[in-house]
Design brief:
Rossmann fold, 6-stranded parallel sheet, globular
């Protein structure tokens, strides 16, 4: 029975997306006979990945666990440098997810997304020939998402869901709430707060905006039933695509902004020029210009369509299984 350790964190600057997909991967590996455990610095991950074992410690104590495994999967930029990955890879199979790696630092590199630019992919394929997985086939969505059947678009209520992923590490949802105070649009606004975010953040605003519902916790059902989703760039965007829900994507930094625009290009129906993804740019750019934020939502609401259904054909829901099988080939 191969022993596999997964290194990731949850909450804070890491959000929930990394932990969500790693939990799904752990379940798939265990179903195939592997012994899977997690290594983390986040205490909250222990309950999140239960019943899998989860070792919590400092960056130095975690290294002791990582050395005693057949395969170590990194879905997190740890404290160690590329030289350490290279040394570890001499005695242990190393898998790196969503990290731009240097030659000799991994047996397998996985980019479970459709937003990595082609030049980056070409460089990785040159550095890791035959050992790079990327694209729509390897997007890792959990079963509680892929088991859901998208609701026909014409049966949905005119509702716009605004969220900041599952944990809202930068308190962006509060900004969204403030910025939409003067939004003139014929739709119900629904603000979602994830389980790892403080629900009382918007308590004061509830007094002045009683007509705007606040819902907690965030669930995938909200994404499935919405007519439009406004969210930060991350796992939530791909979940919205699975449910064939058009999505306005906000970025926290320039890297996210670049990736969001690249994903937008992948989700445009060329003949119709209709998009499933509307890249609104970097959230910090709009810090003092809420009118631009509202304009992005208004434009997406006006041009939204069922074109998301066309791009969603690229997502078959088996990405986790493909990644698990590729990892087990190593042992």
């Amino acid at each position: 029975m191969p022993r596999i350790l997964i290194r990731c964190d949850i909450g804070g600057i890491h959000g929930l997306g990394h932990a969500t997909r790693c939990k799904a991967l752990a379940q798939a590996l265990a179903a195939r006979g592997a012994e899977v455990a997690f290594v983390t610095e986040s205490v909250a991950l222990t309950a999140f990945v239960a019943p899998c074992a989860c070792y919590v410690g400092s960056p130095y104590t975690e290294a002791l666990f990582l050395m005693d495994a057949d395969v170590v999967i990194f879905d997190h930029k740890t404290f160690i440098g590329e030289w350490a990955y290279r040394e570890m890879n001499k005695g242990t199979h190393v898998v790196r997810i969503d990290v731009i790696s240097e030659p000799g630092t991994a047996d397998l590199v996985i980019l479970p997304n459709a937003h990595t630019p082609y030049p980056t992919i070409a460089r990785l394929e040159a550095d890791f020939p035959g050992h790079v997985l990327h694209g729509w086939d390897y997007i890792m969505l959990p079963e509680d998402v892929t088991e859901g059947v998208p609701l026909p678009y014409d049966e949905r209520e005119p509702q716009i869901v605004l969220c900041a992923g599952g944990s809202d590490p930068d308190n962006v949802l509060q900004q969204m709430y403030d910025w939409t105070a003067d939004l003139e649009i014929d739709a119900q606004l629904c603000f979602l707060i994830g389980a790892h975010a403080a629900y009382d953040r918007l308590a004061m605003q509830r007094v002045s905006r009683m007509n705007v519902p606040l819902i907690a916790p965030f669930t995938q059902a909200h994404l499935a039933e919405a007519a439009l989703v406004v969210t930060l760039f991350g796992q939530t965007v791909y979940e919205a695509l699975w449910y064939q829900t058009p999505c306005v994507v906000l970025a926290r930094n320039e890297g996210d902004e670049r990736n969001a625009f690249w994903l937008q290009q992948q989700c445009v129906v060329t003949t119709l020029r209709q998009a499933a993804i509307y890249a609104a740019g970097c959230i910090r750019t709009y810090a003092n210009r809420p009118e631009q934020f509202c304009r992005a939502i208004e434009m997406a609401w006006t041009s939204r369509s069922q074109s998301a259904a066309l791009t969603a054909e690229k997502l078959d829901g088996h990405g986790v299984a493909r990644v698990a099988d590729a990892i087990l080939v190593l042992v």
